[in-house]
Design a protein that fits this description.
254 residues, alpha+beta, seven-stranded mixed β-sheet, 8 helices, globular
């Protein structure tokens, strides 16, 4: 059970994990200047979330400058800097509707936006895309995310999927941890990059649906009992990414 004594250390750990994700998104070229967002739920009876302050590049995010907001996206505390109001319209709705969505990550990458602009969406072009086969929500574009009545449709379109393609907009992933949301985004975006390159190279060859589903189940561990994508292998990948940050960009922990 979390106590008042250990709550600050838990929040610090979560701040450092989220700051690491911001720096990694920047490192791997998945940013859109100061726009897009990554949010993380804080523990406790009152809904509170960490998100980036509006105006900072992702490479400037540290554990200490993340902003705490409530379920409506309003900063908690008079000293908190402002946040982008469009950012938490999407994130707040998903956090509220999905208890497992402790982290929500949204990007506007070139490849992600390209695939989001196609009728077919993500295709099973490569093994990386198989993780998401039949496990992607799609949400039609309704304009800049400022209208609160869009939230119910966003949540319905995401359903219980781990990722969503926002048509004509970008990519979104959720995770029980910041690490899981990041690694899902890394591979979702990589799958989009491969699809764009393959489509430019020639006619696409797609495996049969039963092979795609078999691969998705293998990656999810529902056939083998070993959840490759979300436990052991992803834990090892996350540890390696933190070592990378410690070498090239250690100030995210400040």
């Amino acid at each position: 059970m979390t106590t008042a004594m250990d709550a600050p250390s838990i929040e610090l750990r979560l701040r450092r994990e989220l700051a690491a994700v911001y720096r990694l998104v920047a490192h791997f070229g998945m940013t859109d200047l100061i726009f897009t967002h990554i949010s993380l739920r804080l523990p406790g009876p009152t809904p509170r979330f960490l998100i980036n302050p509006y105006g900072l590049l992702f490479e400037e995010i540290t554990a200490s400058n993340l902003v705490v907001v409530d379920a409506a996206g309003h900063p908690v505390g008079h000293a908190e800097p402002p946040v982008n109001p469009a950012g938490f319209v999407i994130h707040g709705a998903i956090h509220t509707a999905r208890p497992d969505a402790h982290c929500v990550l949204h990007t506007h990458t070139r490849a992600g936006c390209a695939v989001a602009a196609t009728t077919e969406g993500l295709l099973p072009v490569n093994q990386m895309s198989m993780e998401f086969y039949g496990r992607i929500g799609y949400h039609d574009y309704e304009g800049i995310a400022l209208d609160l009545d869009e939230q119910a449709r966003l949540v319905a379109d995401l359903g219980d999927h781990p990722v969503m393609i926002l048509r004509n907009h970008g990519l979104l992933t959720v995770g029980t941890t910041a690490a899981q949301a990041f690694l899902r985004m890394y591979y979702l975006n990589r799958a989009c990059e491969i699809q764009v390159s393959a489509a430019a190279a020639g006619t696409l060859t797609l495996p049969p649906p039963q092979v795609c589903e078999h691969s998705a189940r293998q990656l999810a561990g529902t056939e083998t009992g070993d959840d490759f994508a979300d436990t052991s292998a992803y834990d090892l990948a996350w540890a390696a990414l933190l070592r990378l940050l410690d070498r090239i960009d250690p100030h995210y922990v400040d």
